[in-house]
């Protein structure tokens, strides 16, 4: 363990109370000057370490640092059952989903259950239907959760809908906003898309069984309009316009991962009700873009409901009712 890590662990274990430089030096077996140097280095990494009036140091948990030990701390504090979760953090990566899929292709899948990959920025963030996902640093959080249930029962519709509910809960826990879910799993705040979720299955070709799921979640916390592509600007937005929103992104990432991994153990009817109640689309007129060939091509319809299977129930102009389990819908102005 490096001196910096030792100092960090010591400060972290004091739960936002001051620790004197002398105590830190003694505990780590180093000089006061070396303590000061390590504190400076931690501050440069983004850790919010205050100097207290009596000469001690206080580590503030709202520090804007995304590091696996910090994330793990937050995760276990809130979800003690997830002690075995593995957290991997990257400053930058092409795509956390691509990395997760690579891990799954090279390792025993069960061993990767509850692995969470987090990046501060992505160079090739992927969205649904081959789109890109804008992932600049410092303004958002991009993560993938690997889920490999022991009963090998992966129901894609359930995973997709439940993950959206989990992320919505965490957003509303931290920010004073009303988050809505746009079927299937985009999250909207103030009529703008602030979260995109890309769920990918890892299928065994021989058996046709989906053996693992990768749930990729991109959250625009304070991304500026100018950071989105011209195309994305039409729909994308951020949760807050405050650059210093005062919450550690490590904590947000930890709770998103924790909530996603826990929600699959909840009563499905309860979660589906939450999903239905959070619908951004109910009563709205939408354009339906089927993924699988549909003789209607793109058509317009009114959303009536979301049913127990998380299907979107729409009414067509000719009065007929359709249940959609896949595809994409856009609002008229999009
Ligand atoms: C969408 O809006 O179409 C889905 C966007 C999903 C983006 C997330 S960011 C983390 C993970 N890694 C990716 O490359 N994509 C997902």
For the terminal residues, how far apart are their CA atoms? Answer: 52 Å
List segments where confidence is low: pLDDT < 50 over at least 5 consecutive residues: none
The amount of helix comes to 25-40%
Give the C-alpha Rg: 22 Å
Shape: elongated
What structural class is derived from the secondary structure elements? alpha+beta
The number of helices is: 9
Strand-residue proportion = 25-35%
Report the biggest beta sheet as strand number plus sense, adding barrel if it closes.
Answer: 7 strands, mixed
Q: Could you report the average pLDDT, rounded to the nearest whole number?
A: 92
| Strand order in space, largest sheet | 4-5-6-10-9-8-7
Bound molecules: biotin
Number of strands: 15
Q: Give the SSE string.
A: HEHHEEHEHEEHEEEEHHHEEEEE
Polypeptide structure, described:
The relative contact order is 0.12. This protein has helices spanning 3-13, 21-28, 32-44, 68-78, 96-106, 156-174, 230-233, 249-263, 268-277; strands spanning 19-20, 48-51, 56-60, 86-93, 115-122, 140-147, 179-182, 186-189, 192-203, 210-220, 285-289, 299-306, 312-316, 321-324, 328-331. A seven-stranded mixed β-sheet has the order 4-5-6-10-9-8-7, with helices on both faces. It is an alpha+beta fold and 334 residues long. It is built from nine helices and 15 strands. The structure holds biotin. The site of biotin has 19 residues, from helix 5, strand 6, strand 9 and strand 10.
């Amino acid at each position: 363990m490096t001196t910096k890590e030792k100092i960090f662990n010591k400060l972290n274990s004091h739960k936002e109370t001051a620790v004197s430089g002398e105590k830190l030096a003694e505990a780590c077996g180093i000089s006061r000057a070396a303590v000061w140097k390590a504190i400076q280095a931690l501050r440069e990494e983004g850790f919010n370490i205050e100097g207290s009036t009596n000469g001690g140091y206080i580590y503030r948990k709202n520090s804007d640092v995304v590091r696996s030990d910090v994330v793990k701390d937050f995760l276990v504090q809130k979800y003690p059952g997830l002690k075995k979760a593995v957290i991997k953090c990257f400053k930058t990566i092409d795509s956390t989903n691509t990395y997760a899929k690579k891990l799954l292709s090279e390792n025993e899948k069960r061993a990767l259950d509850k692995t969470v990959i987090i990046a501060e920025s992505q160079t090739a963030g992927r969205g649904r239907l081959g789109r890109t996902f804008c992932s600049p640093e410092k303004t958002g959080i991009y993560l993938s959760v690997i889920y490999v249930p022991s009963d090998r029962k992966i129901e894609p519709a359930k995973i997709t809908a439940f993950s959206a509910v989990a992320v919505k809960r965490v957003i509303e826990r931290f920010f004073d906003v009303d988050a809505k879910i746009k079927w299937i799993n985009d999250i909207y705040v103030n009529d703008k898309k602030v979260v995109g979720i890309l769920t990918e299955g890892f299928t065994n070709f021989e058996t046709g069984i989906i053996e693992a799921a990768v749930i990729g979640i991109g959250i625009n916390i304070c991304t500026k309009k100018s950071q989105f592509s011209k195309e994305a600007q039409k729909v994308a937005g951020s949760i807050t316009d405050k650059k210093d929103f005062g919450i550690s992104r490590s904590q947000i990432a930890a709770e998103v991962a924790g909530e996603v991994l826990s929600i699959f153990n909840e009563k499905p009817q309860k979660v589906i009700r939450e999903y239905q109640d959070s619908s951004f689309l109910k009563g709205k007129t939408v354009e339906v873009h089927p993924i699988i060939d549909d003789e209607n091509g793109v058509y317009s319809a009114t959303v009536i409901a979301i049913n127990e299977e998380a299907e979107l129930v729409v009414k067509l102009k000719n009065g007929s009712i359709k249940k959609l389990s896949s595809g994409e819908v856009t609002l008229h102005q999009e």
